[in-house]
Write a structure and sequence with these properties.
Distance between the termini: 45 Å
Radius of gyration: 18 Å
Number of helices: 6
CATH architecture: Orthogonal Bundle
Largest sheet: 2 strands, parallel
CATH class: Mainly Alpha
Helix content: 25-40%
Number of strands: 6
């Protein structure tokens, strides 16, 4: 049981590390992406158990249902709001604007990857269609 929980916690931390600055996920979204859609509370437990040495895990980007900051003891909720605002995350009342800030990862072959940042056409060749010869090579 301890081993399974540790593995799940490690998976949660690894997935949350991929959430880009200025974007958020919900506990339920993290659980679903890990293949355990009914484990939203366990995601919360994993983040609560986050060792101080794991300061590279952006815990503040994980929210409750509907974009709510989950209540907990201490300065956690105000610290979470402060960090999100510093990243440019917009609030509507007490909730994060999920339409604007929800992370939509790329899922391929059962693995979750961060979506590449969008570059408008004309910046360093990004966005230009490939030639037919380049398409055949890739």
């Amino acid at each position: 049981m301890i081993r399974a929980r540790t593995t799940f916690f490690t998976q949660v931390w690894a997935l949350v590390r991929q959430v880009p600055r200025g974007q958020v996920v919900t506990y339920g979204q993290v659980a679903a992406l890990l293949g355990t859609p009914r484990a939203a509370r366990a995601v919360g437990w994993a983040l609560r158990a986050l060792p101080a040495a794991h300061d590279d895990v952006p815990w503040h980007r994980v929210l409750g249902f509907g974009g709510r900051i989950s209540l907990r003891d201490g300065a956690g909720p105000s610290e979470q709001r402060r960090r999100l605002r510093a990243e440019g995350v917009r609030f509507i009342g007490e909730r994060v604007d999920l339409r604007r800030h929800t992370w939509q990862p790329v899922i391929s072959a059962g693995r979750v990857r961060a979506r590449a940042a969008h570059r408008p056409q004309g910046q360093g060749g990004a966005g230009k269609p490939k030639s037919s010869q380049a398409r055949r090579r890739s």
